[in-house]
Amino acid sequence: MTSTTTSSMKMKILCLTLCSLVLFCSAFTSDDYADALEKSILFFEGQRSGRLPSNQRATWRGDSGLSDGSSEHVDLVGGYYDAGDNVKFGLPMAFTTTLLAWSVIEFGSSMHSQLEHAKSAIKWSTDYLLKAATATPDTLYVQVADPNKDHQCWERPEDMDTPRNVYKVSAQNPGSDVAAETAAALAAASIVFKDSDPSYSSKLLHTAMKVFDFADKHRGAYSDSLNSVVCPFYCSYSGYNDELLWGAAWIHTASGDSSYLNYIQSNGHVLGADDDDYFFSWDNKRAATKILLSKNFLEKNTEGFQAYKAHSDNYICSLIPGTPSFQAQYTPGGLLYKGSSSNLQYVTASTFLLLTYANYLSTNGGGGAATCGSSNVRVEDIVKQAKKQVDYILGDNPAKMSYMVGFGDKYPQHIHHRGSSVPSIHAHPDRIACNDGFQYLKSSSPNPNVHVGAIVGGPDSGDSFSDDRNSYQQSEPATYINAPFVGALAFFLRNPTTQ
């Protein structure tokens, strides 16, 4: 072999190495993020309950739940199924709505052609939540269907014949957690529609205030009132104090009403504002509330709100390896790991908070950094950590698998989802009964209906993933996994090369 040939081979190897480094740093382009954003929003159409509109894009779905609420002589048609079942759970649905709205508030300007689809996804939920909040005085309807009965069947929603019982909270049986989250959802959504539909926005905000007053006046956890049908599915493990603070923060953000600011300042210590929490989910809103409230300090230097900036810094620092406050766990492949069941819900929620806080620090006089003890974490490093999580979900991971259905060349084929796994009513018009559907749960064949945009529970602590319908902890999608990811994708659509 000549020296010229050897030099040429070395040059090729160097070029390949440099190319691989570039690909590792920028795994996805703006077109990729745009594609993922579109699909992440499209997912919600596959979760719709009620009478589907003429512009429905998830065409494998049909009308369902058209008599919901009739047993109580109220109209509870619409809303979303939370995950792979056919139950409408009010607490995660309201949380999903809040996070979709927050995504639009922070990053809607980057959504371009997808902004109207995102607003439609929000409105599909808020239309339902308005009905649930106003059907009966001093009552909030918080759930449709008995999950214990629903889980005994494997039925597509168009066929379901399990009991569609409705459940509510009231003065006698309070549910401050679900009510205050509903208030947060309506208030956040009122900001989204303020310019495009001021009348609807006003209705959302007015209802949010009424529901929050109900939540605050009649305090109690909905798990106590409705234990047998909300536990263990969506028990309020964190209590309701975090939702009261969260709800008040969103109504203040939407209305500018100083009474809600006074409420936060007067009740914050009692409601847990002094405590640091290191995760964010449909159940625990403390970290997110502090980040939302930190904007008051960063923007306006509001007296008494500096502590929220400090708490927000602590939360952010806990997620960044190398800081004195670091305490998160990551898989060998770099994925944030919080729990074995539906771990990606924590990943998408935390990623959204990282990017939202980075946005606040960049634009509102935050000095461009979070304070971590004696050191600082720059905005660029916060964004870099968030990008690792987004890209991991989209396929830049040890398995080279996208955990978003329909994105990329390799993604889960056997998701734990009734409607996706059972032949659609268009392909199989005859009814498929409760027990007859289990053949599809047990089948080794890919799901016949590709639930585009669905983000599944994700891999385990060792980056291993079981593409198996029976492994619901890993293979089940949920609305509250997707909702914060919508905002994260919009951020990187605007900043695709951010490292």
UniProtKB/TrEMBL annotation:
Its EC number is 3.2.1.4. It comes from the Eukaryota. Residues 33-489 form the Glycoside hydrolase family domain. Residues 1-27 form the signal peptide. GO terms for biological process: cellulose catabolic process. The active site is at H416, D467, E476. Keywords: Carbohydrate metabolism, Cellulose degradation, Glycosidase, Hydrolase, Polysaccharide degradation, Signal. Gene3D superfamilies: 1.50.10.10. It catalyses: Endohydrolysis of (1->4)-beta-D-glucosidic linkages in cellulose, lichenin and cereal beta-D-glucans. The keyword Zinc does not apply. It is an enzyme of class 3 (hydrolase). Belongs to the glycosyl hydrolase 9 (cellulase E) family. This is Endoglucanase.
